[in-house]
Write a structure and sequence with these properties.
By secondary structure, the chain is α/β, with parallel strands linked by helices. Helix content is about 35%, strand content about 20%.
Amino acid sequence: MKDLKKPIGLFLAGGGAFGSWQAGVLKELINARIEFDAIAGFSIGALNGSAYCFGKAGELESLWRGVKTDKILKISPEYHHMPLELFRHHSDSFMSKMKFELSNHLAKISLYSNEPIYKFFNSWFREKTSDFVRHIPLYIISHCVERKIPYVAKFDGNRANPSISFMDALVSSCSIPSIFPPVKIMEGNQKIHLVDGGVIGIADISLKIFEGCKTIIFISNSRDDDMNFKSGGIAGLFEEKARRMLLKHVKNIYASRVLVKSKPDVYFISPPESLNMGILDFDGEKCGKAFDIGVKEALRLLNE
C-alpha cells in the first residue's frame, strides 16, 4: 500500500462493536499520511468516517477503549408499523417459511432506545461550526424501508443536506433492525423509515459512489468464516444472522468495483483473525483488543 494514486476513496463497512478494529486500521493509515478525497460508510463505518471528516480520528482510540455497554444499550422495547422486509433466504419448506415470517415481524420490534446514541453523537460532534475540518464529501448510507433501496445522504464538506440532518443520517445508519428503532423523516409529503441496511440483505451499496477515484481502500469488519458462525440462545441467533447478512453485503459491495469507470486500484482490508467479540459487545476491554489487532494489520499491510 505505497504510492497510492490520487484521488483516494475510503469505504468503511458496518459491524457494530467490530468498528473498533476498523478504527485501529484507520489510525495507522492516517499515521502513514494517507489522505482521503471522499469517504462513504454505513452503520459504525459512518461514525468512523465522520470522525475523520471532523478531525477527530485521533480520539477514536480513547473512545473505543472507554466504551461501555450500559451507555449504549438502554432497554426500551417498541413495535414499529413499517413495511420492513428482510432478504428472502428461506427454502420451500413450511418450517423455513414460517421461520422467515417470524424473523420479518421480529425485525420490526426494537429492543433498545436510540436516545443514548443521539446523546453520544451530539456530545462528540458538538462543534459550533457546521464545516468539516477536512473539506471532502462524506456519504452516510442507511436503508429506506419504503423504497427498499439504500438511502445515501451526501455531506459535501459540512453538515448541510436538504433532505436530512447530519445527526438523523448518522443515527439511522446505525439503527440495526430488532436492536434500535428506525429514524423517521419526511421527504415532501411522504414519511419514510430509515434503518441500518447492513443486516437487511435486500439492496446492495455500490462503489460507483467513488467514480473518478484512482484508489479505493475498503475496510471491512467481516471475515469469511462469519458465513458459518454458530452461537447459542436468542442473542446468538441474531449474531449468526447479522454476521451472514453483513458478510453478504460486504462481498457484493466489493464486487461492484468492476462498475467504477475510472478503474481504481481497490485495497480490501478485513480482520486477519477472530476479534473474540460480538456485534453488540460495546465493552472497552474487548474493543481495545480489537483496536490493537487493527493497528497491527494496518502496519503489516503498509510495510508490505
